[in-house]
Amino acid sequence: MASEKSVLEHTFKFLDLYVPQWFEKRDLSQDKSPLFILLSGPQGSGKSYTAQFVYKYLLEKYGESKRVVQMSIDDFYLTHEDQKEFSDKFADNKLLQGRGLPGTHDIPLLSKCINALISGEDSKVILPQYDKSKFNGEGDRCAKGKEVTLPLDIVVLEGWFLGFSPILERQEISTNPHLQSSAEMVQVNANLFFYKDMLWNNPEIKSLGIVFAADDIHDVYKWRLEQEQALRKTTGEGMTDEEVKKFIDRYFPCYQLYYDDLVSGEDLGSIATLTLGIDLQRTVYSAKERCIE
Description:
By secondary structure, the protein is an alpha/beta fold.
């Protein structure tokens, strides 16, 4: 059982141990790539909230001595117009009708930005920003991105499917009796390889992983509903409660197929991984730390 600590307390303790160790080993004459801190968890589990505080914490801890940036995989969604074209292209696949699943991101743009961050060359890169409230909750990319000066020391990256491992055998998906939308998941599974090879399975990326393990994956429906209600209150735009349910329904086959393996694997980070068990109220009930390097 975890001690009576919050998600942030567990997270900061984990970072305080491994981040300084990484800087001590880092040889800037040989490698200028940054340390990636990968946060993964179901929608509404608190990963974006935690990522913001991790970013602020690292800025306060290291000040001007280190360059830190915060990113979300969601910022790399296709533009609203491109998403409509993508959905039309895969009109027979209900899982790809709208943003969210692997394949609905601008892969060339994501690859370009990640490669720029890894290279560590003195330059600048524009990171995209995404507004989920646009078009009544369908979302669209913001006109202006975030300019970042390279090289960086730490990249905080969060995303709901970071660490998911695609299935190698197509038949294992199409014949799975417990999986919703098994036929549609074949294409999504194929798309997932791009992300895995680019991020959490990329040998050029050194990373610490933080995984939010829900005690019941169905908690995501309540969590995501709370998020959207808050968004509507703040912006006046967003999905209705029924639209939120249908939205999560499209994601759920991914949770059925990959989520348990992510949690049990404890290997999101190439250096070390912190897995936090949380209940419906996002209270930590277990904390597991695994060092790989």
